[in-house]
């Protein structure tokens, strides 16, 4: 159990005093007259919002020990509060248990072990006040600050009645949960886009779901956290399953071409203006409310803190017009349209028939986009539009280039966990207009024709980067971005692979944007409910700054690059860059089964055959988890269909950073072929679990009696012998580029460069770095169990990567 | 996907008319003038609570298809509503999807497949009205009735404003969700018991948490659903782990005794009166509120429907007085004290110091107890007190005799999943007074002394039934029960084993109580969030009858014995009894490796040795799941430490019901020994998963914008070769009784009767019934890997069980 706080601001005594007054922690106190003990007892009584009488508050004080032998009340009759007694009580307030979590006789050891900040000496009222201020901002056992936990117990309910003009309130640079979540207003409006993606001659209307504090009805203008989620109106899971492509097919031999990028570059076609609806009237309030939006719990957390939550699923989803697409410019425009409405530059209507306009009059015009995966992807897409209302995006596990999601190296490479999925499958899954029978009846034919075209255009046969994918590459438009970006990605995310965030991070380096990068040890998950990181608090600081314009130094306070340690529980490190100046280049050469420091011109060839006995092939193609585990563990028969090269055990721990690069000389026995690579950490060690452990079911409340979240954390599991670091794939016919098909003569050696997926990995001393070279990837590539032999000319092979030494 | 409704009442036309008026579905309708189509459209518009304008309601109607080609609005211009169009639309309202779930051209086939009730002909307004009434009570895709789903969308929010005197309202015999859950009142009071379990000279005060509708402040009196949960104030998990007993110990040889039951019978000691607190004043409202009670989601569901929820953890838990115990009469008295306060015959105070009395003036005096496991156990315990305020219990996965939880057949037999746990461990885990440092400081010494005594009294050495266990046997007091009982238990629950509910069921047979039994296919779980069963609706019917006194025929309507099918998804059958008159006795004899119809006097002996190679023993004792799987699959080396006897394949399917009984003649090679048994279904078949699948995360709302639950269901998994049916254990020294130690001479044959755990299992035709005889049970018994040989004289062995034939 270890805590890491990055969203906490250090303030001066006058500032602390003022803020404590704001949140009514000094109400009734005459600071110049009160004794330190009395002030302490006053704070503690205030921090008991569930106790409504003096007797009940006294009972609470009687339940807290100030040292091994005395309750707070006993202690204060004979002693004066000092740092030891203050933190003995503080740890109890924070939810830590005597004996189980800390020893009353030595609270400072516990504070250090838990990595909680504290004041080593408390000798005066001023010290006490500052220590109390900081304590309110210190996280407890559930990873939330004491102030957040007091809020969950009802501390701020009396603030609900403040006039709208007095809201929001900030404490320590962050907006406070003073908004009554039992009185949230939910509304549906229909934003009119500039698109006519279903070609019905009318501009597509987009359903938008809004949840906003009641205070907005009384004059408060709030920012909007907007989450664009094509999944939000439901998904067609059976249809998606039906359309999923077969992956036990042969890799195609591609005709040699000399294609240049210009030939496949996407240029937006000129489209005439779409006729807009005439405005027949205006409305202040919507005509539809929501039952339950599919919310992101971080948005719920911010809803209690004075930020509206806005959800839209986009063209082709239930109750919206248009045809579904996947990553196209139309989808970006559909996403941006909602921001434009929120910022006042686009129309919305109360329904699809009456042409009654409704404005986002309750919005202060500042929008942030949030969400993970496809949701974060659309945040990234919207940012590349440069639309002025968008002040920042928190882009989690986001795609930056759809080619890097469904393809790699001239190959069809599935997102991990979803073999056979492709753009057309995702379109069909998200086409939730299908869920409304009457609507589907009239759009069905267009949908099917359009889907057929996508299936053709995505081109699963060649796997090349083409015009379809160029239209879906947000990296081309990064120069348009004007807003700050928080990038969050799991270092074990094989669904949206790391290249997506790496490219977004690297290619915005020189754009003078405020950028923050958080790399965690998860797979494809959210991290706002982790015990070890104050993610919600960090983002509150960021959004209070970006959307409410609060001068809280958020860009300076939040770390630029924050990486979760892969060898320790609950440990996060700050870095200057992903693969920056602190690293040095390492080159390893191939010599038989080894990765060695110097090239061996006599190393000779090594080969393997991408073919398995029929039974093993069937079994592995039905269970790719087992296949990967057995491949990493070097189990037969996978030892004959792959090669492993291992380094010597490391003498010191290093961080592997950025992208590993392979230079290879390779020959295949046929006129087509693909190579796959895994970089592996070999060494017996306890490693973090694949998924976080559940610590506390429903243990986090977004506000007071509002929506609940589970508290989770990655925990070390029993020792295991290896861990996948990263992967890579290439079609041997794409040695020149992703769009040109190179000649591949059987049994002829060719030189090849491969860039693997990026990494940020602590490789401990004593462990070996392993490289597995193989072909068919049961989880990601096509595989037909062909008898296909691959040979490597080891003397001409090399692995380059960047790493920094770790001083332990 | 298959639905089963048992909580639905058939009503007359006048009754339906009246009730539809009550819930405002006929407001503004002149029934004698309106056309059937207009009435239908009116109903549909009313069933769109999220649409607040005529245009929005019209849009909703336009989204529903009445047949393959026409929306409702189009259809009604040319046709008149009939059963086909009514149910085409109905299925959409219920959340089923066209194509994915049903075919618009043939709705009746879908209704039959889904097992949903319907009206085959709708020819008149009366037909339509009755069909609509029934549709409101028909469950949708999420297993909740349409009316419940309308409630979640806000249909009943306008009913919040009804005067308290007009509440509750009932529809179809069940209380309606017309209570504003955003305005629930939460309170803490301290009930004064007649106990002084911590021997401090003062009657133990018990903390009680109350959540009640705001209407109670305005004169409404509501019943209470009371859940007694020793876990509710937190658990000492680290301490519990530390105290868990070692199970890799030798089975003790017991000295021969001639003990009679009278010698070990528990008789309550006479205790002098405990001095009570003087009343210093009275209060109407409590001084403390709650942050978040650890609620049972079924209680949440009923909270929205006008039933208060009451939680108490009992003596020895945080904020209560007393020492923790486990199943003792003191715990029962502590549990009952809360009911007595709710019913008006006991005092409670607002805090522990001021002696200010507070009454449960908001309660109508009718109490039901709810909850699973320890919670259901305390409900059963309270029922045996006969306390008049307790009108019914819904006792789920409950213990009826603590000997049957921690012991069996003269052996320590752990609850499945918790080897080494015992009464003392559970006491320590639930002693949440430890969580409040100051309180713990002063009670610690008494707690530790008391715990030490329990460790002695529970007697892990002999495993016998003794005075300690006799004090914890609720079956002795069943004759005191006055209230109705709903028993719910999982047929795969190896934590609280089936004997507990079987004995409760069988031994209350002649008590003239209203009894209902529900046996599901789960392990140790709740079933109020299943798709296939309307459990919440059934219980609403039951509780509206029992606690509000509504004459709704609940006892007659609800099935007496309801059993979930173990071979089909979502299928529930009604029976007259668990092992009643429909069954016939089957006797199978042992012949080498077979179970045969007739005894073979020449069958000869069979033997096995309870000893494994050291490596296998270590591996299996650390992973009892693998051990059980390998034992059932007959993997070496477990084949030498057990015997399997198999029947011939069954020619017809049968239900195995009640308790299997074994008559054995057995010899052991030492002076101590234990035998274990597994009855097994051998046959390749798809079987239900061990745990239910998640269908819809947060898909169920307890009311409107209130607490959320996941929707789940057991699904058939890929075919497997076997399934455990039931188990049993016996100490060879307990052939006479659970309290007498019999002589056991090595290598001497003794006759032995063993009753295995009860079952209700459909054994399909073609499958074989298997009996595995073994000794050490890695999950449940002690095991020290002794070299201990067991021999069975097969000619004198027999398996008896009761079964009924299934006409497929």
Automatic annotation (TrEMBL), chains A, B:
Active-site residue list: 373, 493, 524
Gene Ontology molecular function, alphabetical: aminopeptidase activity; dipeptidyl-peptidase activity; serine-type peptidase activity
SMART domains: PepX_C (SM00939), PepX_N (SM00940)
Enzyme Commission number(s) of this protein: 3.4.14.11
InterPro entries reported in the protein's UniProt record: AB_hydrolase_fold, CocE/Ser_esterase, Galactose-bd-like_sf, Pept_S15_Xpro, PepX_N_dom, PepX_N_dom_sf, Xaa-Pro-like_dom, Xaa-Pro_dipept_C
Domain of life per record: Bacteria
GO CC terms of this entry: cytoplasm
Keywords: Aminopeptidase, Cytoplasm, Hydrolase, Protease, Serine protease
Family, similarity comment: Belongs to the peptidase S15 family.
Subcellular location: Cytoplasm
GO terms of biological process kind: proteolysis
Protein name: Xaa-Pro dipeptidyl-peptidase
HAMAP family: Aminopeptidase_S15 (MF_00698)
Domain X-Prolyl dipeptidyl aminopeptidase PepX N-terminal: 1-155
Protease in keyword set: yes
Signal peptide start-end: none
Enzyme class label: hydrolase
Predominant place of localization: cytoplasm
Keyword flag Phosphoprotein: no
Catalytic activity, as annotated: Hydrolyzes Xaa-Pro-|- bonds to release unblocked, N-terminal dipeptides from substrates including Ala-Pro-|-p-nitroanilide and (sequentially) Tyr-Pro-|-Phe-Pro-|-Gly-Pro-|-Ile
Functional description taken from the UniProt entry: Removes N-terminal dipeptides sequentially from polypeptides having unsubstituted N-termini provided that the penultimate residue is proline.
Oligomeric and partner information: Homodimer.
The Xaa-Pro dipeptidyl-peptidase C-terminal domain, residue ranges: 540-800
